[in-house]
């Protein structure tokens, strides 16, 4: 494998891989330069350029928490957004705020299966009613369509 190897698009949704691909799409960026910046701020571990290539190419690699933190640091993206992308890619669960209830001081997060519609979240609607929020809108984190 070399830095000139072609990185292919995966058939499955790959939001974590897409983050790495987007970082590599920057003019003049190489796997080695990106890898130098991908340092986990907690452990100091560095992502190797071959691991970045595997992530971007949809190949198998060892999935660890420190890796997500390192990639977030290396690409300059919000850690929570990179964690959500990794969760979706690794587990198939979408992580988002279908209530659109997050504020600057509070983040509401719900994990649900990819492709789930707001109508398929009856327990969430029930809990909203229990909290006195029965009129809140429930929207899909991926398509933004709202249901009352």
Keywords:
elongated; 148 residues; two-stranded antiparallel sheet; mainly alpha; 4 strands
CA-based shape:
elongated
Number of strands: 4
> In sequence order, what are the helices and strands, one letter per element?
HHHHHEEHEE
Average pLDDT rating: 79
Structural class: mainly alpha
**What is the oligomer described by this structure?**
single chain
Low-confidence stretches: 142-148
Strand percentage: 5-15%
Helix content: 25-40%
Q: Report the major sheet.
A: 2 strands, antiparallel
**Spatial sequence of strands, sheet with the most strands:** 1-2
Helix segment count? Answer: 6
Rg, Cα atoms, Å: 18 Å
Cα end-to-end separation? 51 Å
Q: Secondary-structure map with pairings?
A:
Layout: H1 15-24, H2 31-37, H3 49-57, H4 65-75, H5 79-91, E1 93-96, E2 110-113, H6 122-130, E3 138-139, E4 146-147
Antiparallel strand pairs: 1-2, 3-4
Helix pairs in contact: 1-3, 1-5, 2-3, 2-4, 4-5
What does this structure look like?
The chain contains six helices and four strands; from the N terminus they run H-H-H-H-H-E-E-H-E-E. It is mostly helical and 148 residues long. The strands form two sheets. The protein has a two-stranded antiparallel ribbon with strand order 1-2.
At a glance:
The protein is mainly alpha-helical. It is built from 6 helices and 4 strands. α1 (15-24) crosses α3 (49-57), α1 (15-24) packs across α5 (79-91) and α4 packs across α5 (79-91).
């Amino acid at each position: 494998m070399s830095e000139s190897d072609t990185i292919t698009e995966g058939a499955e949704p790959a939001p974590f891989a897409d983050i790495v691909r987007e970082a590599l799409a920057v003019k003049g960026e190489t796997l080695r330069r990106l890898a130098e910046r991908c340092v986990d701020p907690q452990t100091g571990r560095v992502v190797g350029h071959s691991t970045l290539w595997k992530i971007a190419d949809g190949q198998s690699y060892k999935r660890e928490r420190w890796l997500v933190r390192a990639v977030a640091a290396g690409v300059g993206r919000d850690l929570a957004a990179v964690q959500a992308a990794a969760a979706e890619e690794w587990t198939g669960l979408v992580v988002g705020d279908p209530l659109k209830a997050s504020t600057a001081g509070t983040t509401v997060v719900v994990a649900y299966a990819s492709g789930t519609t707001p109508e398929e979240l009856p327990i969430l609607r029930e809990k909203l009613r229990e909290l006195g929020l029965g009129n809140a809108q429930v929207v899909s984190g991926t398509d933004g369509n709202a249901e009352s």
